[in-house]
Amino acid sequence: MGCKSPNLSGGGGGGKDFGKGKDFGKGKDFGKGKDFGGVMMPWMKGKGKGDFGKGGCDFGKGGGFKGKDDGSAPGYWDDYSPGKYYEEPGGIVGVEGLRDAMTRAIEPHMHTEKQWKPEDMVNKICMSIFKTATKWWKDDTRHKEAGSSIQAQALLEEFTEKIMAGLSSTCHDKPWFFEVYLSEGVALAAINTFKSGALFKRTVAPIIVTHVDEAIHRYREEERHQKVMWDAVSSVGIKSDYHKKANKHLATSFEAAHIAAKYGTSQALTPALGMVQDFVIAWVRDFCKRAWDILNNGINSSTPDQQIAVVTMLFQYFCDPAHTCLPVDLVSQLDMPPPANWDFVAQAVIQLWAENAQAGY
Q1: What is the pLDDT of residue 46?
Q2: pTM for this one?
Q3: In the 3-class helix/strand/coil scheme, how is the chain assigned residue by residue?
Q4: Where are the domains positioned within the chain?
């Protein structure tokens, strides 16, 4: 799906098409003519208007602006209150362009928010992003050292995950949180944080948006997977006392199956479908190995038939295209996803129990 890129260069208006197949802001051009070279600075210490320590608004040597020694501050800070996000043009404080980016991002979702006013939505999102980025700037110096583009990408993904974790704690119960476009704001925070470091000296701004967008997508997919797993465990007859343990085993075995699956061994209509089947087999086998206590004590009847039924329902739920948990790298290669109540899952589970019975388990 073609679209315009966010303008992160600090130069002119229209964006260029980059990151084919990805929607970076749904055609919106942001940051027109703005300089994204603002300095990320620790801010707002103490209480009261313009109280940033001795001398009012002293951000330290060579950075920001300084108030007079009598404690006065520029008029910009006359309405200062704790918990409010401030953004000074030129990057003196805040992340330049962040408020504007988040204002546009929430606009399509304002009708779904019943408690916060639009300005509160913007303030809470900006404040969370800025606080996380500022703490990173203070505590983490890895971006200052030279390295490869792969290292830069890995650090950017870690930064994005940290930002998303902070936002999640603030907005986890909001229906719009997993829909709102955050890539622009997180990319601005990343550029503001990493721009002075040697690690990103050969990384162009549009690529930062690409990596941020991918990292946000992965974070949201992982959060969605957790919800799907909880929903499945709660609906197949596993006792409530075993839900937490079952979810832990499902998540662990899911991660292990990515590399442990014996790809290329399943017979299927297409090689791509065969790899999906190989993954499912590995996931089922590893889960059943870890979850023996749940299958024997965590369901109302621990007969083999009931165990087979529970495991089959679980993994058919995970493969259902309505809420699939299958790796996107595998499913994206298919002409069409596995159907609901996929019969292959039932066959794989029955085969596993037959092998276990033959081995005397």
Answers
A1: 33
A2: 0.68
A3: CCCCCCCCCCCCCCCCCCCCCCCCCCCCCCCCCCCCCCCCCCCCCCCCCCCCCCCCCCCCCCCCCCCCCCCCCCHHHCCCCCCCCCCCCCCCCCCCCHHHHHHHHHHHHHHHCCCCCHHHHHHHHHHHHHHHHHHHHHHCCHHHCCCCHHHHHHHHHHHHHHHHHHHHHHHCCCCCCCCCCCHHHHHHHHHHHHCCCHHHCCCCHHHHHHHHHHHHHHHHHHHHHHHHHHHHHHHCCECHHHHHHHHHHHHHHHHHHHHHCCCCCCCCCCHHHHHHHHHHHHHHHHHHHHCHHHHHHCECCCCHHHHHHHHHHHHHHHHCCCCCCCCHHHHCCCCCCCCCCCHHHHHHHHHHHHHHHHCCC
A4: 237-358
